Structures are given as structure tokens and as C-alpha cells.
Amino acid sequence: MGPMVGEESVQEGAAPEATWAGAGRARIELRDVHKSFGPKHVLRGLDLTVRDGDSLVILGGSGTGKSVLVQHLIGLMRPDRGSVLVDGEDLAALSSAELTTLRQRFGMSFQEGALFDSLTVFDNVGFLLERLGTMTRAEIRDRVFECLELVRLEGTAQRLPSELSGGMRRRVGFARAIAHKPEILLFDEPNTGLDPVTSAVIDELIIRMREKLHSTTVTITHDLRSAFTIATRLVLLHQGQIAAEGTPEEMQASEDGRVQQFLSGEAHGPLTDDEEAEREARRE
Amino acid sequence: MTRALNDFFAEIGHFAQMFWDVLRWTPRRPWDFGELLNQMVRVGVLSLPVVLLTALFTGAVMALQTYGVLARVNAESFTGSIIALSMVRELAAVLAALMIAGRCGSAMGAELGTMRVTQQIDALEVLATNPVHYLVVPRVWATTIVLPLLVVLSNVVGIYGGYLVSVVLMGANPVSYIDRSFQFMELADVTSGLIKAAVFGFIIALIGCLKGYRTRGGAKGVGNSTTKAVVAASISVLIVDFFLTKILF
Ligand SMILES: Nc1ncnc2c1ncn2[C@@H]1O[C@H](COP(=O)(O)OP(=O)(O)O)[C@@H](O)[C@H]1O
Ligand SMILES: [Mg+2]
Fold first, then answer.
1. What range defines the domain where residue B204 resides?
2. Of A144, A151, A249, which is closest to residue A200 (Cα–Cα)?
3. Which pTM value belongs to this model?
């Protein structure tokens, strides 16, 4: 039997991500999630499943709620209605201590970096490793410098975040997110504002996290080239729901006008028409 | 009106929630004694000059006021008693608390507020660290420990301020002045002042942190939180002082 399984997985080269135990099981599920801020209805009954080994890319216009969506995945925001399940556990049912423990499985980098401005770059990246207390000082040191090297910032360890540029802060945030080798990684616009080369380095890291460490990744990006480089699956967020979903090939070939407009970057089309209609409706 | 009442009860609810969270997270590991010490230094050492200056001049002004009035009824020899008892039972604790509210309550509001609006508090949560545990617990206990220590020193300095004015300016007899200062004082007078100070410290830091923690809306929000932290902490100190005085004596 053994060789046949091997042969099969070779023939199924189209899905190389499904090669480790447990691949494909649901890690995070959003069910009918609604979220409003005052009169602004941002998420409107959103359903989404993130599977083990996915590299999911979230596309969508500015202000459509991509950051809000990602913050729901890790329980930083609570849905007004609907539920969020991580490995089958409903986040709303967890105590704050249980939620704290569950978050050790996650790493997240924020759109604006969110570095601790009273701590050095080194202490930022090593923050969770120090708190967990499972590694020696030397191990932590090695791991921190390894992560800084990955994002090409090894020279900045003793600096404070206020002494870094925006792009550097974002990369430190990235290093901090991957330092404890989490199973699930959330990246909110990791390569916005980076030069093309550094941006490609980040893309490569995201791919490597998935292939080497079998991490599940969710990435928000505006950069289509990088989206199609890292994604195994893409979703388009539009008007508080997942408007379209598919593999990179499926999205490229999609007949959906909204996907076509987003991918080609047209100023006029179904996406913008919908928003126009909504503004009209609100005026009445 | 009902809106204001609603807001008021919401505030009480947030305070109670934070109070409970602090108690709940205090015994949990990892214990961060380094941070506790760091906060004690920030609250204590850095506030020492302003707190002691306040005590010194309060003692001095009280001497100016009471000596003259008591002299009208030939009771000026009781100046020392009045100053010492007022300082120890009441003034040292309340004045130090108001100074700390202005200096440290506001700083805590601004610091945690900035961390909130720049998503540093979210980042703490993501790094499997409870923000109340990491930020609020050390600040609250540091202030609770340090304020009584400041009050001990304030007592000494305040009484000395009264002594200086009475003896040097008013010509009181130094030996009998000192005698009178402590003649009627009991240990309970001192401990009640220190208990008050500890309670005030707890309340000031809790309110400062709470206002910072619940900040919304950018730099303007941080400014609002800072102001609210000072006002709410100061008023709470004065109100709680009334009830504590009623209970403790
Ligand atoms: N904490 C918040 N309070 C109020 N409104 C918010 C908050 N977070 C996001 N929003 C609103 O939700 C909408 C979506 O925001 P966001 O998720 O940041 O968009 P993006 O897709 O660009 O990441 C925006 O209109 C924003 O103003
Ligand atoms: Mg965003």
C-alpha cells in the first residue's frame, strides 16, 4: 500500500500543501459574523473557514473591513452576532485566561506595527519567549537574532521603535509575530510601504513559514503580485461579506465582474457601482 | 438626565470589572517584581520632592493660621497638637493623594491610552499576555505601597514645617512645642492616615489605568483620558476620604 500512497501524492502535485497529518482540517471558522461601529455595518453575515495549511489572502478595497475581519479571527474584536471558532472552540465561551493560552498558537503582525515603544527591538521580538519562560537566555538571544536576520534588521536590536522608519517597524512587527513559531499567522498588510526587494523577502518568508513550519497563514495585502505569489486561496471582501473565493487560478479565470474589476484595478465597475448604490440608499 | 445616570452606572461597572480583574490576575505567574519596583520608583522617588514640598508648606501655613487665632484665647501652646494631629490623621494623606493623582494618575492614563490607540494593548493580547496582568497590576500595587511611605515622610516634614514657623517666626518655646505635638497623639491616628493613603493609592492608579485602558479615538482620546483620570481620581479621593474618616474614627 505504501508506495501507492506515495505515487498518488506525486500525481496530485497540484495540491502539495496537503501532505502533513491533519492538513485541511478547519482551524478558524467564522459563522454569520456581524460587526457594526455605530451606524457603520462593517461585517454583514460573513462566513469564512481557514483550513490547516492554507495560505489565505484577503483582498478588498480600503475601509472594507479587512483589518476588522482579521481581528475577529484572534478574538481582539467580538462579533455583535454570529460566532468565531478556533480549533472547534467558540471564542465567546472562553475565559480571559483560556483565551490568553489559546493565543500562544497565534502570531500576528499589525498594520501599523504596534511595537512596544518602551522596549528595544530585541525585547519586542523576544517578548513572548521571555514571558513563556521555556527557553534559556542564550536560546532566546539566538532566536531573536535569527528572526531579525530573516527580516534583514540584525543591526537594529538595541534600538527603540521610535528610532526606526515605518517600514522597519513593520518588519520588526513581522519578526515578533514569527518568533515563537506559531501554528497560525495573521499578517495585516505586511508589505505595504516596503521597497519591491524587501517586499519580496517578506513574501518568501510567508511561503517558507507555510512550507517549512506548516503554519497556516492569513495575509491582507493590496499588492496583487505578492497576493498571487503567496496564496493557496484568495477571498475578496466586499460589503461585509466574502464576495468571491478561490485558488489563484480560479480567481484569475473568474467570470465575476467584481473580481475582474479588483484584479484589473478599474476605477469603474460592479464594485464601485455597489458602493454608489449603497450611498444612494442611505441618502433616501 | 437618564443618559448621565446611565453613563455614571456604566463607569461604576467598568471600575468594578477592573477592580475584580486586578485582584484575579495579581496572584498569577509570571510575577514581575522588576516592573513592580520600577513603578514604585516612578511613583515614589520621582514624586518625593513635590509631595514633601506640599507637606512642608501646609504645616507652615497651618502654623501661621492657628497660632494667631489660638493666641486670642491664650491657647497658642496647642498649635503643635493641632498641626500634628491634622497632618497625621488627614492632611498628609489627602494632599499627597491629590499630588499623586495629578502626577501619576494622569501619566498612567496617558501611557495606557497611547498604548491603546497605537494597538500596543492589542499586541499584548496577541502575544498571549493579559494587559491587566502586565500593565495594571504592577502600577496599582506600586502606588498602593508607595503612597503610605510618602505619607510617613510627609507627616514628619509637615510637622517640622509647623515647628519652624511657630518657633522661629512666632517665638514659641521649642521644647514645649514638641511636647505638645505628640502629647495627644495615639498610634491609631497614625495608622488611620496610612490606611487612607493605601486606599487612595489603589484608587488613583486603578482609575488612571482604567481611563487609559478604555481610551478611544486617537490623540484627542488620549488627551481626554488624561484629563478624566485626574478629575475622577481627585474627586474619588475626596469622597472616599469622607467615608473612610467616618469608618475609621
Ligand atoms: N475600533 C474601531 N472603532 C470604530 N470604527 C472602526 C474601528 N475599527 C474599524 N472601524 C471602521 O471599520 C471600517 C473598516 O475598517 P478596516 O477594517 O480598518 O478597513 P481595511 O479594510 O482598510 O483594513 C472603517 O470604516 C473603519 O472606520
Ligand atoms: Mg486595514
1. 35-248
2. A151
3. 0.88
